[in-house]
Specification:
The chain is an alpha/beta fold and 346 residues long. It has one domain: TIM Barrel (Alpha-Beta Barrel), CATH 3.20.20.140. The chain contains twelve helices and eleven strands. The protein has an eight-stranded parallel β-sheet, with helices on both faces. It has a three-stranded mixed β-sheet with strand order 9-10-11, with no helix packed on it. The two termini are 32 Å apart.
C-alpha cells in the first residue's frame, strides 16, 4: 500500500490545518478489515474504492496514512469492518477486537437483523467491542428504498444495546435520508425507547447538501443519547448548521477512511450532491474528472477544511474544536468500554 502524499498536500497541511487541528484526533468512523474478514469468493471490482488500498485496510495502514496527512497529531480510532453481505460478521468482529485496546483504539461489530440477541452479545462481548454497526444491505426481502431504521435494528437487537449501554453507528436508509419523515419519526423513537443505547447518526444523517439538513436535527437534538458523526461531510454549510443547532458536545469527528483517502470532494448541485473524483474509483454519485482538469487533494483534507470554515462561522471556541475532534468521542467510547469490561481490555 502506497500513501500518495504530495508536496501540494503538504502545503495544505502547513498553511491551512497545522495551526487549527488539536494535538489529538479521535476518528469515530473508520473501516478496518483484511481478506480473512471477507467470504473466500469475494473479489472487489477493478474500480472499487477499496482497490485504492489494495483490497484490505488494517490499523497499521490507517496510522501510516494519518502520519503523513497529519504528522503532528496523534490519532485514536473507533473502527468496524466492511458493512456488506461480502463480510463474515464473526471474523470481522474478531478482527476489530484484535485491533482494539479500549483505551486508544476501539472496535464495533457488524450486525444483521437476522442475528439472534445471543449471537450479538457473543460477537460483541467475546471481542470486547463497544457496540455495533447495522447496515441496510443486511436487510433481506425488502426493496432498498423502503427499508426502515426498525428493519435494520429490530427490537431484540436494540434491547441488547440498551441493556449493555453500547454505542451504535447508524447509516440512515431511504432516499430522503435525514429529511425522510419515516426516518425522522423512527430516529427519535429509537433514542427515547432505548435511552441507555448511544446512537451515532453517521454522516450527519447522510446530509451532504444544505436543504437535506436544515430543520431536520431538532428531534434528535432533544435526545441526550443521540450523536452525530461528520464522516465524509465537507460541506461547510451543513457542518455550520450542525454546529449551530445540535449540541456540540455530541458531535464527533469521523473520516470514513479508507474512502476518505481517495482524491475528491463532495459538492452540492441543485439540491443534490455528487462526488467529484480525481481518481477513477466508484463511490456513490461519483463523477470522474477524466481530463484531469482539476488538481484534487483527499476527501480527508476537504473534510478538515470544511470543519475549519464551519467552526469559524459558527463561533466555535478552541475548547469546542478540541471536543469535536477528540473529547466527545473519547468520553463516549471509554464509557461504553468501562460499563462492559472495566477501564481497559483484560
Amino acid at each position: 500500500m502506497t500513501v500518495d502524499f504530495t508536496e501540494a498536500d503538504r502545503q495544505i497541511y502547513e498553511r491551512e490545518l497545522k495551526g487549527f487541528l488539536p494535538e489529538r484526533i479521535f476518528d469515530a468512523h473508520v473501516h478496518l478489515f483484511d481478506r480473512g474478514c471477507l467470504h473466500p469468493d469475494v473479489r472487489f471490482p477493478a474500480k472499487h474504492c477499496y482497490q485504492k488500498v489494495g483490497g484490505a485496510f488494517s490499523l497499521k495502514n490507517y496510522l501510516t496514512w494519518t502520519a503523513e496527512l497529519c504528522p503532528e497529531q496523534t490519532f485514536h480510532v473507533n473502527a468496524f469492518g466492511h458493512p456488506s453481505y461480502e463480510s463474515d460478521l464473526d471474523a470481522t468482529a474478531a478482527f476489530a477486537g484484535r485491533h482494539s485496546d479500549n483505551s486508544r483504539f476501539f472496535g464495533m461489530a457488524l450486525v444483521s437483523p437476522r442475528d439472534t440477541p445471543e449471537a450479538v452479545v457473543r460477537r460483541v462481548a467475546d471481542n470486547h467491542l463497544v457496540g455495533y454497526k447495522p447496515y441496510l444491505t443486511f436487510v433481506e426481502g425488502k426493496d432498498v428504498g423502503e427499508i426502515t431504521v426498525h428493519d435494520m435494528l429490530p427490537a431484540a437487537l436494540m434491547d441488547v444495546a440498551d441493556q449493555r449501554g453500547l454505542a451504535i453507528t447508524l447509516h440512515l436508509p431511504r432516499p430522503g435520508r435525514l429529511a425522510d419523515p419515516v426516518n425522522q419519526a423512527q430516529m427519535v423513537e429509537l433514542c427515547r425507547r432505548y435511552p441507555n443505547a448511544q446512537i451515532i447518526f453517521a454522516h450527519i444523517g447522510r446530509a451532504y447538501y444544505l436543504s437535506s439538513v436544515v430543520g431536520f436535527l431538532d428531534g434528535i437534538a432533544a435526545c441526550p443519547n443521540a450523536f452525530l458523526d461528520t464522516a465524509m461531510i465537507n460541506h461547510e454549510g451543513v457542518l455550520e448548521y450542525a454546529f449551530r443547532t445540535f449540541p456540540r458536545e455530541r458531535i464527533l469527528f469521523g473520516s470514513d477512511a479508507p474512502i476518505a483517502f481517495l482524491r475528491g470532494k463532495s459538492v452540492e448541485l441543485n439540491n443534490q450532491y455528487a462526488y467529484l473524483m480525481g481518481e477513477d474509483y466508484a463511490i456513490g454519485t461519483s463523477i470522474y474528472d477524466a481530463r484531469h482538469a482539476v488538481a484534487f487533494t483527499t476527501f480527508f483534507y476537504e473534510q478538515l477544511r470544511g470543519i475549519k470554515l464551519a467552526a469559524g462561522r459558527a463561533g466555535l471556541s478552541a475548547g469546542d474544536i478540541e471536543n469535536v475532534f477528540f473529547n466527545n468521542a473519547s468520553r463516549l467510547f471509554k464509557a461504553a468500554a468501562e460499563r462492559n469490561y472495566g477501564s481497559r481490555k483484560g
